[in-house]
Design a protein that fits this description.
disordered C terminus, five-stranded antiparallel β-sheet, seven-stranded antiparallel β-sheet, alpha+beta, 18 strands
């Protein structure tokens, strides 16, 4: 078995260094020493490793990519894509990659907004976790272990297969991987009642920089704190999460109603800001704002979708809205009662009646070139400020949208230092900006310039000192690290926007567990190693 293992990893590094320009002869002895020290379950190399001369390389590279924009870089191709079947293989890849200077980018679902899980300026390999997606549910205590390569859709499907009155508060896109989604926060349609995904994680397994598998007890509370909201890729390779499931009734209620300028939508959005974070915690009303052609005269207008889920029945929901937001004019026929798992399909925009197994499809529902950004709003935006947003939405000829996601409820009850994710009490809602276009062409920069201008305009109306941002909507415009090692001051430019005062603690955890900064990317937490200046 040991010789089989050596053959596997020897082939791997022959592939790696043949494409990086480093000769095998230069490092032959080091490789042999490295490879011969390991033993693992042997699997055919063709099922684990994909290189540029392999016909499956490009399909595997693009298979989970939602955003095609990062692939437009000439530096985006990895030396190899490795798809391990066993945790022990990850340990070995980390050990040998560190020893021989090859960067690792870990890909769970491939939804990183800036592609940091699958591109790099330095020679690198993708550690693709698609084969590590087992899910084990303990129905006696309502806990669950999920491997990092599983998608949200696979997670939700597995929960529903066991019990239709159990759920988990995480995102609405079923092809997002739990490895990255959970480590950045994880907001969902029941988060005002149950908090973020990270608020319901009770254990984890990961491979550290030494190739050791750790759980909560062995990693210690500081590292366990850091990986729940601080981005797991800065600290190691997340293998699995243990989560607490939450109880939901047999039926929840959803609605999606659309209003335009002709229906007084400016005043509706303005009013929504005063109730969104204060309304019953069982209710989330998200807003989707876009420019469309008016059905009346063909001129442009603003359309806003009020999309909601209520953990309860329609009659109770109608009563709550009649008391708090009668201006919306919600009717009984607008409300649909369904199970929680059916609401997952609804929010993901699957047709009514779709079978649950559509959640098992790991391929993104739509691919595009896009740029996203985020903000937090702590004071309601005036009607004048909203009109300025409308004017800028009219300017963009691509597919653009703003999403307003309300906070409050359980989010307000957790202190900003409890976990690295700091955007808690005092935030009315989060804004997600996105602009998309169909293909990479000379117009791409025009779309990106547009969203940056909108973002600059919004500086008057959003959080300040620092201006907040959500890690799971990663944005390299906020700042990037120097190539290789970077300073505390350089990284804090973007780091305090994601983490506020928690950035300092994250840096000290990083320095303790990865002092040489092996696990790094353009926005990874830096290490205060000797010779670096804070």
């Amino acid at each position: 078995m040991k010789s089989s293992n050596t053959s596997l990893l020897l082939f791997l590094f022959i592939y790696l260094f043949s494409f990086s320009g480093i000769t095998l002869a230069d490092t032959h002895n080091e490789f042999i020493q490295c490879l011969s020290s390991y033993s693992q379950n042997f699997t055919s190399i063709s099922t684990l490793i994909y290189t540029p001369n392999n016909s499956s390389y490009r399909p595997i590279l693009l298979s989970s990519a939602q955003n095609l924009r990062p692939y437009s870089s000439p530096l985006s191709d990895p030396l190899a894509i490795i798809t391990p079947l066993y945790e022990s293989q990850i340990q070995e890849i980390v050990q040998c990659s560190k020893l021989h200077g090859v960067e690792i980018r870990v890909r769970s679902g491939g939804h990183d907004y800036e592609g940091l899980s699958y591109i790099s300026e330095s020679p690198f390999v993708i550690l693709d976790l698609r084969n590590l997606r087992s899910i084990t549910i303990n129905t006696e205590n309502n806990t669950l272990w999920v491997q990092a390569g599983a998608t949200l859709g696979e997670l939700y499907y597995s929960i529903a297969e066991k019990n239709r009155t159990l759920a988990f508060p995480a995102g609405v896109c079923p092809t997002v991987g739990v490895g990255g989604h959970f480590s950045g926060g994880g907001f969902g349609m029941i988060s005002r009642k149950y908090g973020l995904a990270i608020d319901n994680i009770i254990d984890a397994r990961m491979v550290n920089v030494n190739g050791t598998i750790l759980n909560r007890e062995s990693m210690g509370e500081d590292l366990f704190w850091a990986i729940r909201g601080g981005g797991g890729a800065s600290f190691g390779v997340i293998l699995a999460w243990k989560i607490n499931l939450v109880s939901v009734p047999e039926n929840v209620t959803v609605f999606n109603v659309t209003r335009t300028l002709e229906q007084n939508v400016t005043k509706l959005v303005h009013r929504w800001q005063y109730i969104a974070d204060k309304i019953d915690e069982n209710l989330v009303i998200r807003l989707f704002l876009r420019s469309v052609n008016s059905s009346q005269n063909g001129d442009k207008t603003i359309e806003v979708s009020f999309t909601a889920m209520f953990v309860g029945g329609a009659d109770t929901l109608l009563q709550i809205l009649q008391e708090t937001f009668p201006e919306l004019g919600l009717l009984r026929e607008d409300c649909i009662e369904m199970s929680w798992i059916e609401s997952i399909l609804y929010m993901a925009q699957f047709p009514r009646g779709s079978p649950l197994d559509v959640l098992l499809n790991r391929n993104p529902q739509g691919r595009a070139f896009f740029k996203g950004k985020s903000d937090y709003v702590r004071e309601p935006i005036s009607e004048k400020g909203l009109l300025g947003i409308w004017e800028r939405l009219y300017e963009e000829v691509g597919s653009s949208e703003l999403q307003f996601t309300p906070y409050g409820g359980r989010m307000n009850e957790i202190s900003e230092s409890e976990l690295p994710f700091p955007h808690r009490s005092g935030n009315i809602y989060m804004i997600h900006y996105v602009v998309a276009w169909g293909e990479e062409d000379v117009e791409a920069q025009r779309h990106i310039s547009w969203i940056r201008r909108l973002y600059n305009y919004m500086s008057l109306y959003v959080s300040k000192s620092p201006r907040g941002a959500y890690l799971n909507y990663r944005d390299l415009d906020l700042g990037v690290n120097n190539k290789g090692n970077t300073s505390y001051a350089k990284a804090s430019i973007w780091g305090t926007k994601y983490f506020r005062n928690n950035f300092n603690r994250l840096v000290h955890v990083k320095t303790k567990v990865d002092p040489a900064n092996f696990f790094r990317n353009e926005q990874s937490i830096p290490s205060l190693s000797s010779g670096w200046k804070k």
